[in-house]
Amino acid sequence: MSVVPVGDAYDVVLEGGCSRRVSDVIGEGVRRALVVHTHSMRALGEQVTTALRADGVEAYAAPVPDAEDAKTAAVASELWAVLGRHGFTRTDVVVGVGGGTVTDLAGFVAATWLRGVPVVQVPTTLLGMVDAAVGGKTGINTAEGKNLVGSFHPPRAVLCDPDVLATLPRADYVAGLAEVVKAGFIVDPVILDLVAADPDAATRPDGPHTLELIERAIRVKADVVSVDLKESSLREILNYGHTFGHAIEHVEHYRRRHGEAVAIGMVFAAELACAAGVLARDVVDRHREVLTSVGLPTSYGPGRWDELEAAMRRDKKTRGALLRFVVLEDVARPTRLEGPTTEQLHTAYAALSH
Ligand SMILES: NC(=O)c1ccc[n+]([C@@H]2O[C@H](COP(=O)([O-])OP(=O)(O)OC[C@H]3O[C@@H](n4cnc5c(N)ncnc54)[C@H](O)[C@@H]3O)[C@@H](O)[C@H]2O)c1
Ligand SMILES: O=C(O)C(=O)C[C@@H](O)[C@H](O)[C@H](O)COP(=O)(O)O
Ligand SMILES: [Zn+2]
């Protein structure tokens, strides 16, 4: 459906059944493929592996642990060992079949093996389709924080098959909506209108606006990364809500879903912008309305500020001692807030526990 014209331009396909067509997009001359998948996506992982073999590719299925447990140096190292044992060369390919955690890991392993081999992404969560699999940001976590090691490595193709969303647990689908809503606040307010028109339908993969919501969010992401792949400036807007959100994930040892943490992080960013006199109160309220309407969290308990602030200092947007946040001046008018005062930060944090 859309082409991302960055480096070697690539397609992001959004079509029922497209996850069965990996062979069509891996490119010419591929002899081997490593199909990375979690146990939850074993059936699809094996289906992709079998289909590749039927097309003459030496394909290997590589099961990895679920969720954030996949995004570790130990798991990446195991996959490098598999690639080494099977003699993967620069014309071979890695395929990521799973949620954002799997596409981040598969992309990182592809980015680092032989300093870069192609990766094809087959996202199986809403979040993976609208955000993680598109744009070439890859990475793993370290003990000190989220996504601290990684690389920009655009995929060869992205196959978003909405049919696979039927098995996704509702809570994971809703978590993905946080990134959809993010795209609405930073660039495309029509997304917010579509969600507000029927919030309950927005939480279902068979809802009347599902494809339009996915397509619009992918378009936002593709347009931004096409202009600024390596996040020298514009791409930072895709990080809306993530400074505080990633801090929550870190202090809670990844027991909370990424999308849920980002939802709270967007409310924090909105409250911070309001405290700094940048954003009007009604837009802050709109954050709570839209996120709450689809069942996403918007509050956070008191008492953890010191840990959260320490984690935020390791955010990639931080420059020296200066904390930097993506904030809004209005819907679809993102800007940056550099070095907010302690009082502004505390005001925003306190507002989360109301
Ligand atoms: N690289 C990027 O640009 C980018 C963007 C956004 C998020 N991310 C990363 O993505 C990750 C979050 O991704 P996520 O929300 O997809 O979580 P996830 O990958 O942990 O998947 C959520 C859960 O759904 C299960 N699952 C996946 N697909 C399924 C299906 N079709 N049916 C049944 N179960 C299924 C998984 O096994 C997992 O338990 C975070 O690590 C985040 O940092 C990266
Ligand atoms: O693509 C981007 O750029 C984003 O910031 C998208 C985010 O939704 C995503 O969670 C990303 O992985 C965060 O990246 P990080 O650089 O803050 O680790
Ligand atoms: Zn995110």
Automatic annotation (TrEMBL):
Domain 3-dehydroquinate synthase C-terminal stretches: 176-318
Organism: Knoellia aerolata DSM 18566
Record's cofactor remark: Binds 1 divalent metal cation per subunit. Can use either Co(2+) or Zn(2+).
Binding positions (Zn(2+)): 179, 242, 258
Catalyzed reactions per annotation: 7-phospho-2-dehydro-3-deoxy-D-arabino-heptonate = 3-dehydroquinate + phosphate
GO biological process, one term: chorismate biosynthetic process
Protein name: 3-dehydroquinate synthase
Catalytic activity, EC: 4.2.3.4
Binding site residues for NAD(+): 66-71, 124-125, 137, 146
Keyword vocabulary terms for this entry: Amino-acid biosynthesis, Aromatic amino acid biosynthesis, Cobalt, Cytoplasm, Lyase, Metal-binding, NAD, Nucleotide-binding, Zinc
Pfam families reported in the protein's UniProt record: DHQ_synthase, DHQS_C
Pathway(s) the chain acts in: Metabolic intermediate biosynthesis; chorismate biosynthesis; chorismate from D-erythrose 4-phosphate and phosphoenolpyruvate: step 2/7
Compartments (UniProt record): Cytoplasm
UniProt function note: Catalyzes the conversion of 3-deoxy-D-arabino-heptulosonate 7-phosphate (DAHP) to dehydroquinate (DHQ).
Name of encoding gene: aroB
Highest taxon above the source species: Bacteria
Uppermost EC category: lyase
Positions of the 3-dehydroquinate synthase N-terminal domain: 63-172
Cofactor names: NAD(+); Co(2+); Zn(2+)
GO MF terms held by the record: 3-dehydroquinate synthase activity; metal ion binding; nucleotide binding
GO cellular component, one term: cytoplasm
Lineage, broadest ranks: Bacteria, Bacillati, Actinomycetota, Actinomycetes, Micrococcales
Protein family membership: Belongs to the sugar phosphate cyclases superfamily. Dehydroquinate synthase family.
